[in-house]
Amino acid sequence: MLHKPSLSRKIFLGFNYVILIGLGLLCFLPIVHILAVSLSSKWAATAGVVKLWPVDFTLASYQYVLNKPQFMVAMWITVQRVVLGTAISMLLTLLIAYPLSKEPKDFKFRTQYAWFFVFTTLFSGGLIPRYMTIRDTGLIDTLWALIIPGAVAVFNVILLLNFFRGLPKELEESCFIDGGGYITSLWNIYAPLSLPAMATVTLFTIVGQWNEWFDGLLLMNSPEKYPLSSYLQTIIVQTNLTNITADDAAALADVSNRTFKAAQIFIGSLPILLLYPFLQRFFVKGIVLGSVKE
Amino acid sequence: MLDKKFRRQWPLHLMILPGVIIVLIYSYWPMVGIAMAFQKFVPFKGLFGSEWIGLDNFRYVFDLPETGQIIWNTVFIAFMKIIGGLIVPIVVSLLLNELRNELIKRGVQTLVYLPHFLSWVILGGIFIDILSPTSGIVNQVLGLFGIEPIFFLGSNKWFPYTLVITDIWKEFGFSTIVYLAALTSINPALYEAATVDGANRWKQTWHITLPGMLPIIILLATLSLGNVLNAGFDQVFNLYSPQVYESGDILDTFIYRIGMQGAQYGVATAIGLFKSIISFVFIVVSYSLASKFANYRIF
């Protein structure tokens, strides 16, 4: 900058720092508060004296939660769906994105196939027909109900196919000259070269699988088959006190399960918080990937 | 000729086949299932055995006293989210752009899009806790300023605004990053030239930064048009309760309650079809606007 900043600019910059740091904290402090509540004793949480630091520190609520058999069962179902769901979804994404990244002259029905997939993002049969279809294919109450119906993520396909298109075609041509076919080319050239893009899409898929709660609620008839997120939904949200008036709520001893809920909220968000540094790194990359078009 | 070409391309068809089958079954077959909107659908009779009743399901829905209010809630909440979701990130990214301290800039960026990755189950749990009128920390803080406890999630006056604000809180970081990415592509020479010409920061923002962001603003604005009937099922479902149905019940939650809890499959499908058709029209319009004004292509 050529000039010394003027007084009004200094005041503006001062305010700007305060506002933005405040905004940043506003996005983060609710989670800190919940963590503090989860580590506080029952009376402290009930009395509402916990702010951002545990009062009367105890791990009791975590012990309680982790000793609940249903919690561990739900966790195991979630682990299975994350691993299987991500693997299957990624494989399908790769197998769809590669042919669609070809020009129509190399893959005759490329445009028709692309519209076949994109149309599903524009129009859908809606909740009930979808439920009936999943029911009719016999997936209700099985792990596959959480994996197969949503396995084709069109957004990820588009992301990856745009990345494929950005790769130099000469690489593939050299593979063809060496006598390789499309499968060799996908496996030996496209897949290794698109590792950063694949990593981005994989991370998003893992987060999506971990977070998805509605399909469990919808497609599992017995709560023992819920994945963790659906189980948490029934524990944390469905038993909420908002449909009781303020006076009633104060009179209820039930408020003491606030620390248990807080502990479960925190455990439910922990994997996301742990993945976050990676998510953040790939996040901007993912946005850029999606916008790279020829 | 065609035969030869197909023989060379068959691995491509084979690769795409599993995806095609899954989409055919789980995305296209439900579209056939929309037929139940015109039926008195009974599951054990199936789509081919159930009685056809024409438009009776639609008549039934539009005669319900709450339907008008629910459509209004949906559009009102969705519209406010669209507007807020556009303005807030633009302002925040402009403010972030003024920061010269890289560490603080990166730190703020890191914090603001954390909520984007958390589900509404987790965030619902957090908001139910911190917005509680008795023990919630938000009302404790407001109390310091002498404000009476507000029943954010339980009063019809506050509920829709709580939905809009918490949704913007969750998502503004995402668009902010998109805008910041667009800002980095503005040529720094423009700012130097403007400084030489005596333009202050405000004028630089108005004449260089904002025009530089305009294409991406137009893109996000037109694409968000497709959301006019998406008031956010995940959020509403995890935050609402019967006492705020009046102000917070939206089409998607209504469909769920009627269809899955009330087992009125035909009626729920009819409302779903109503929503799908209107959304489809808006999405197609928004995509064509986006391709016209922002050179946007889906693939």
List keywords for this structure.
heterodimer; A: about 290 residues; mainly alpha; MetI-like fold; 14 helices; B: about 300 residues; two-stranded antiparallel ribbon; cell membrane (chain A)
> What is the mean pLDDT of chain A?
86
Oligomer: heterodimer
Share of residues in helices of chain B: over 70%
Count of helices of chain A?
Answer: 14
- What name does CATH use for the topology of chain A? MetI-like fold
Give the name of the CATH superfamily of chain A: MetI-like
Report the uncertain regions of chain A. 241-255
Tell me the structural class of chain B.
mainly alpha
Q: Major beta sheet of chain B, specifics?
A: 2 strands, antiparallel
What global shape of chain A is seen? Answer: globular
Q: Could you tell me the strand content of chain A as a percent range?
A: under 5%
- Overall tally of structural domains of chain A: 1
Side by side, the strands of the main sheet of chain B go: 1-2
Topology:
The complex is a heterodimer of chains A (about 290) and B (about 300).
Chain A: H1 7-38, H2 42-47, H3 60-66, H4 69-100, H5 110-122, H6 127-136, H7 154-166, H8 169-177, H9 182-193, H10 195-211, H11 214-219, H12 228-237, H13 246-251, H14 258-291
Helix pairs in contact in A: 1-14, 3-14, 4-7, 4-10, 7-14, 8-9, 10-14, 12-14
Chain B: H1 2-33, E1 39-40, H2 46-49, E2 51-52, H3 56-63, H4 67-98, H5 102-112, H6 120-130, H7 137-144, H8 159-183, H9 188-196, H10 201-224, H11 233-239, H12 245-248, H13 251-261, H14 265-293
Antiparallel strand pairs in B: 1-2
InterPro entries (chain A): MetI-like (IPR000515), MetI-like_sf (IPR035906)
Membrane topology (chain A): Multi-pass membrane protein
Subcellular location (chain A): Cell membrane
